[in-house]
């Protein structure tokens, strides 16, 4: 791919609310009728297949709130809370472990948040040891951690390496000092550069930077300067998210409406055009899909070339067919046949774990039609096309008959140049990469009932 051209009229046409497809069915379908006993039964049912494990740990704490934040967080300056939380995570692992195959090994480990680096180096080491006591790691473990450069020391980096991490994702959002003031996240560029140096020197092999466009105070020019500064750091991956303004879900975002205007939808689209064209044409990054870019040598880009890319709650991943065992407040677990989410408030989460229960709040079963649609949507989102024969074999169905209505309904997307179709399959064009969510939505059986307001726009 030699750089993408962004057609803003087309983007505008398809800019409708839609799921991000980190799961299917989407998390909006999870219900409280799914109980801890259901989760235990699903773990037992999955056990015989001995799927490789993907371990996720949610560390919810942050010292200060970034006003744009959409994550599930606990804001506190009390770092002793980390001790209680790490103890509870170990207890939760102990409760889940008997439900998993004894020889199941982890191929993927991820700490997200909140801010995992809110934990001090001793707490990181304690949690790292606890995880190794309960789980074996595969030799090619992909272990990634979200890092807040503002809360990082060289000892944190050493502790993270000891815990097995070899990849890191750093929150940046924007380097412009005025934007940083507007969003309540002060993070001088030198601090980020220093964090990157420490991580690289310690042997981290793939570094991702997160940026957000659509924040108050941003202009096309200001974001161009941020991109220049980011590219000097040459991260292996970049995630450039569209700011989702959902104050009815995240009340802290209301502050933007009082203090500083958000960029207009037109400016946001111009920034998106700048990002995609700059990164793919001038800077040599591959556009993976959704918000993600990677150097062609990065394993994410290589996996996409080999059609082995996957997508889950942590975003794009190179490890497929895993069972996600998620620990901590609000964390989401996944087996082939179900999803469930832990309790979203710290006191309730602690109470459930201390009472010896799996701390499950809600979930949903994934029925056979869901499984077929999930695989189809993931092929669209990750591998940018559908191979009808391969999907027919995988699910023992005549794929084209099964999806006859959906496939016949792709005419508008094809005539707009987003995809091409043949007898053998469907291929998403370079133009269509920007709109993979819209293409995936055509295979979503739940969408007509759930589309409004609960989802952010596709761009
Ligand atoms: S550090 Fe990350 S998780 Fe914490 S408030 Fe800021 S954006 Fe949200």
Description:
The structure is a single chain. Strand 11 and strand 12 form a beta hairpin. This protein has about 450 residues and is an alpha/beta fold. The protein has helices at about 10-15, 35-45, 80-95, 120-135, 155-160, 175-185, 190-200, 220-235, 255-260, 265-280, 300-305, 345-355, 370-385, 390-395, 400, 405-410, 410-415, 430-435, 435-440, 445-450, and strands spanning about 55-60, 60, 75, 105-115, 135-145, 165-175, 205-215, 235-240, 285-290, 290-295, 310, 315, 325, 330-335, 340, 360-365, 385, 420, 425-430. It is globular, with a radius of gyration of 21 Å. It has 2 domains: about 1-20 and about 370-459, Arc Repressor Mutant, subunit A; about 25-325, Alpha-Beta Barrel (TIM Barrel). Helices cover about 40% and strands about 20% of the residues. It binds iron/sulfur cluster (SF4).
Helix/strand structural class: alpha/beta
Give the end-to-end Cα distance, rounded to a whole number of Å: 21 Å
**Any guess at the CATH architecture of the largest domain?**
Alpha-Beta Barrel
Bound molecules: iron/sulfur cluster
- Please provide the count of β strands: 19
Q: Helical region count?
A: 20
Order of strands across the main sheet: 9-10-8-7-6-5-4-1-13
How would you name the CATH homologous superfamily of the largest domain? Aldolase class I
User: What portion of the residues fall into strands of 2 or more residues?
Assistant: 15-25%
**Total domains, how many?**
2
- Oligomeric state, counting identical vs distinct chains: single chain
Helix content: 25-40%
The stretches of 5 or more residues where confidence is low (pLDDT under 50) are none
CATH topology name of the largest domain: TIM Barrel
Radius of gyration equals 21 Å
